[in-house]
Amino acid sequence: MMHWFEGPLAAFDTETTGVDVEEDRIVSAALVVQDAAGGRLRVTRWLVNPGIPVPPGATEIHGLTDDHLQRNGRWPAPVVEEMPGRWRSSARRDGRWS
Predict the structure, then answer these.
(1) Could you give the domains of the chain?
(2) How much is the pTM?
(3) Residues 72-92 pLDDT 10s
(4) Of these four, 22, 38, 39, 77, which has the most CB atoms within 10 Å of its CB?
C-alpha cells in the first residue's frame, strides 16, 4: 500500500501583513508541487504589493519590507486571479498532481 507521502504532493503557503483573516493581506505566496517521492519540485512564487504598510512585526517574521513590496510586488487582483489556473495546470487529467 502506498503512503500519502509517496505519491504526488502539493503545498501552498502564504506570508501576510498579520494574522487577522478579515483585515490582513497577502504579501507573498508559493505553490510547490512534487510528482512523487524524490521527484523534481516545481515552485511558483508570487510577490504581492498589499497596498497598505506592512507592520514591523510582520516584516520581522517574513523579511518583506514596504519598499521591497512596492518595488517588486504585483497588485493583488491579478495574482489572486492567476492562482487557481496555476493550481489547475499542476493537476493531471486523472486528478493527480503532475
Answers:
(1) 4-89 (3.30.420.10)
(2) 0.83
(3) 999 999 999 999 888 887 765
(4) 39
